[in-house]
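Below is the record:
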Amino acid sequence: MTGKQNLFPSSEYDEQVAVIQYCDIKRIACFAIPNGGSRNRIEAARMQASGVKAGIPDLCIPVPSGKYHSLYIEMKYGRNKTSPKQDEWIERLRQLGHKVCVCYGANQAIDEIEKYFSEK
C-alpha cells in the first residue's frame, strides 16, 4: 500500500452523527432538520407542502446564548460549498438574531458549539 489511506472513511452524515452524539453526551438540546436526501417527486411535494424548506441548515440548537436566540449549523464535508438557497437562509437567520455556522466536520462544529455557549 502506498501513500496515506483513510482507514475510517467519513462523510457529512458520519460527521453530523458525531456532533449529535457529542450534544447528547453534554445534554445540549440539538436536533437535525431533515431537508437533504433524495426523494421521489410525490414525497418531495408532500414534504414541501408540510413546510420543509430547501436551504435550512442541518442542525439547530434552540438554546439562547449571549446575544443569539439559537445556533444553526450547516454541515459540509470535503470540498462541498453552500448552495445559493443555503446562503439565503443563513443570511436570513442571522438577520433574525440567530448564530449560523458552516462547519467542515464534527471537530469544527463542536468547537463552534463550545464557543457559542462561552460567549457573553
Notes: Residues 12-26 form the longest helix (15 residues).
